[in-house]
Amino acid sequence: ILVELRAVALNYRDPMRANGLLPPEAVEGSPLSRGLGCDGAGIVSAVGPGVTAYKTGDRVSGLMAAALGSHALTHAGAVGPMPGTMSYIEAATFPVAFLTVHHTLADQARPLPGETLLVHGGAGAVGLAALQCARHLGLRVIATAGTETKRDLLRTLGVEHVLDSRSLDFAPRVRELTDGKGVDIVVNSLSGEAIAQSLDLLRPNGRFIELGKRDIFLNNPLLLRPFHRSLTFLGFNLDSIVFDRARGPRLVLDTAARVAAGQYRPLPHTVCPAARVDEAFRLLQHSRHVGKVVVAFDPLDEPVPVEPALGVPALDGEGTYLVTGGLGGFGAATAEWLADRGARHLALVGRRGAEAPEAAAVLQRLAARGVTATAYAADVTDETAVREVIAAVDATGHPLRGVVHCAMQLDDAPLADLTDERFAAVFAPKAAGAHILDRLTTGRALDLFLLHSSVTAATGNLAQAPYVAANAHLEALARARRNAGRTATALAWGPIADTGYVARSNLAATMTGLGFEPVTSTEAFAAADHILAAGTDVAGIGRYRWGRARRLLPSLATPRYAALVPAGAADADESREELLRSLAAMSTEDAVRAITEALARHLAGVLHIDPSELDPDRNLEDFGVDSLMGAEFILQAREYFGIHIPPGELMGGGRTLTHFARLIHDRLGLHSSQGAPPPGP
Ligand SMILES: NC(=O)c1ccc[n+]([C@@H]2O[C@H](COP(=O)([O-])OP(=O)(O)OC[C@H]3O[C@@H](n4cnc5c(N)ncnc54)[C@H](OP(=O)(O)O)[C@@H]3O)[C@@H](O)[C@H]2O)c1
């Protein structure tokens, strides 16, 4: 069924996913992880053949992949009818939390009235749902939570025994509260040692419901001795149950029936209108909410700023695309990209034609994929020669449909050293060549007129005055053509890592050191697809560290570039570089201490506390760092040190600031290169 969304509740995995912090195993093969949001409520706007349970106009709530949008497509069995009086916002608070709890606690653990339940993380959405379910089943509840505010909430909700989940003291306290007998069921979301401690608390015939994913994804082992007491360990994956044709619909309908009967009630929630979805993500990320954060799509709210999904228009398989400089380097990669986009006839032009060193390999690669590529030997500054190439193309019966101008000639030298001839030799192939191509294709129906420019057109460059001028000229030509209603795009590339001049001259490390980090041609063309689809006239594609670049190119410090070089970027970059430089000169112990201090500053920022309150030798978990705060901390550390720390490494025993500082120290490779310049990220 197709559902027009009216409310979508977020889950912790959404901000994790948006920040690229979910491990691949959490996403691969999971229909619910196809996009953001999976708790939805809305109106059925279409039903597929064979769907009898719902019709257009029905109000439903349930699980739907990529629910955070105007519409979502889902299985009829994954949603349930909404009670008549319930709002969409309330209905969106149910699916993930209550399906999880109903399946694991009510269906799988099969509690008997009067049994004792220990709920870890009782103030989270699933925890709150478990409390409702437990009350309904007549269970005695002990709950844990990580902060005093959350524990207060649980007491207010009538939970008799509330303990701290951040220390392992909960185990002896539970024994005390149960006269040494322990509990019958544990609903767990804690990780590491807390799992073993909680298993030990189970009475004979006890059931352990594992809702945390961390230890499962890390494939951590579990000791089996406790199971001698006839214990049951229940793992859980919502995808596997909800999309199981036998179990899924029954679970969804059972849960919906409890909702309809008022046994399960909406969870506490905070609402953000869809136009301010960013606030919803921030709220969740900083755990400043109780229960659920719901994004509301109310037609009466302010409109949602929508960025249209741009389809990349295919090129004309019957037409010919002419690529100057297309017989080698980045020009040849460009020709292959045109083939990726549907071009089947290419005219590749260079002064050496098929004699160019890479030409044979380029032609062979294209032929192998069914593309007719013809090499033409012509100088693009020679109008007669270019006219002849176009005439030859016309004679093939595959009319010229596009031009990509990649030809370039370099001759780096200070401007004062250049003669007119040397200047023109660099300037003309780009600038004069582009004008010739522009003139000779006037009146033709082209769907592409692409000019390869360079980031240097914006930043300037030492010893490259004619090259910079020529690229600036190409960008002006693109704008002039657009103004005249003709197609044109100039793409100002940063250095390319895998092919072309920079790669051939082994300049990647030097460029990175200067703040211009090479990108692969795959990354470059992915960005180009987007820009071309958007119909932009001039755009840049590259990865830059402006703080470094500014030291080489003073022009970047002038007000003219204020928009290009974000305020503070230079300082942040410089302070990072300064840190890395000074670290390299320190002894290992001093460097680890300095990194620890930098990490403490970041973590303190995340936790809104003073860095001095952070004991570097305590586990991060002890500071109340939950997975989302952890995610933010990791992102900051990643940004600052240019080092990847997998989120899974954050929690558990021995995960102290000092531990991470040692890890970063090792990964920076400082111990092996004392005094050497810092490596690039
Ligand atoms: N590679 C990078 O990192 C990078 C970065 C930014 C921008 N770009 C832009 O990307 C384009 C391609 O760069 P690249 O690195 O691939 O350069 P490249 O390897 O040096 O190739 C330049 C090509 O242009 C051809 N050419 C030069 N003068 C010509 C002329 N007068 N008429 C016809 N063909 C001519 C050359 O072939 P013949 O010698 O046989 O004529 C050669 O195939 C350039 O426009 C450059 O500004 C590249």
TrEMBL record:
PROSITE patterns: CARRIER. Coiled coil: none annotated. SUPFAM superfamilies: ACP-like, GroES-like, NAD(P)-binding Rossmann-fold domains. Keywords: Phosphopantetheine, Phosphoprotein, Transferase. GO terms for biological process: antibiotic biosynthetic process; fatty acid biosynthetic process. Residues 590-668 form the Carrier domain. Gene3D superfamilies: ACP-like, Medium-chain alcohol dehydrogenases, catalytic domain, NAD(P)-binding Rossmann-like Domain. One of its GO terms (molecular function) is oxidoreductase activity. It holds the Pfam family ADH_zinc_N. This is SDR family NAD(P)-dependent oxidoreductase. It comes from Streptomyces morookaense.
